[in-house]
TrEMBL record:
Keywords: Disulfide bond, Membrane, Transmembrane, Transmembrane helix. Belongs to the tetraspanin (TM4SF) family. InterPro entries: Tetraspanin/Peripherin, Tetraspanin_animals. It comes from Odocoileus virginianus (White-tailed deer). It is found in: Membrane. The chain crosses the membrane at residues 12-40, 46-68, 75-100, 168-188. This is Tetraspanin-13 isoform X1. The lineage of its organism: Eukaryota, Metazoa, Chordata, Craniata, Vertebrata. The keyword Disulfide bond applies. One of its GO terms (cellular component) is membrane. It is a multi-pass membrane protein. Disulfide bonds join 129-144. Pfam families: Tetraspanin. PANTHER family: TETRASPANIN, TETRASPANIN-13.
Length: 204
């Protein structure tokens, strides 16, 4: 049977959802690993990563069950959800790739001011204090505070990595957004195909 038939569409859809399942478990595992080794103490950051992993896992589970059973309703909802995720993810990925240095700095400063626990993680891991300046009256968990040398601000250090991280996140996001639109196309194609093992006159 040439690729494009019922069996090929089913196998491709199952393989795609298995890939999504592995990615979702990887996200949950990375969040648990970061908490376990003390690299991340921000419950908000960990909660977002775990929530994204669980959401992706549920989507993959719906798609996998719908593909295996050729369930029309599950496949329809899977196709709609995947299309919405594609629109959001594609937009966010393009925004990450389009940010200039000034916009990156503004975005980092907003995040710095709104996440106290993540701010402490950054200061401790990068050995810096404050975003653009540091007052001796402020608390800082970095080891440089205990030394005689003045602590460096975190903004220049974070700025070195921000562009690379945003490009990496944007590239990964674009890659998975194209797999999602592929999943939408495969699901639409698969829903309108007849199962050759069933009654030829029936449409399942």
């Amino acid at each position: 049977m040439v690729c494009g038939g019922f069996a090929c569409s089913k196998n491709c859809l199952c393989a795609l959802n298995l890939l999504y399942t592995l990615v979702s478990l990887l996200l949950i595992g990375i969040a648990a690993w970061g908490i376990g080794f003390g690299l991340i103490s921000s419950l908000r950051v960990v909660g977002v990563v775990i929530a994204v992993g669980i959401f992706l896992f549920l989507i993959a589970l719906v798609g996998l069950i719908g593909a295996v059973k050729h369930h029309q309703v599950l496949l329809f909802f899977y196709m709609i959800i995947l299309l919405l995720v594609f629109i959001v993810q594609f937009s966010v990925s393009c925004a990450c790739l389009a940010l200039n240095q000034e916009q990156q700095g503004q975005l980092l400063e907003v995040g710095w001011n709104n996440t106290a626990s993540a701010r402490n993680d950054i200061q401790r891991n990068l050995n810096c204090c404050g975003f653009r300046s540091f007052s001796p009256n402020d608390t800082c968990p970095a080891s440089c505070v205990k030394s005689s040398h003045p602590c460096s601000p975190c903004a220049p250090i974070i700025g070195k990595y921000a562009g690379e991280v945003l490009r990496f996140v944007g590239g990964i996001g674009l890659f998975f957004s194209f797999t999602e639109i592929l999943g939408v196309w495969l699901t639409y194609r698969y829903r309108n195909q007849k199962d050759p093992r069933a009654n030829p006159s029936a449409f399942l």
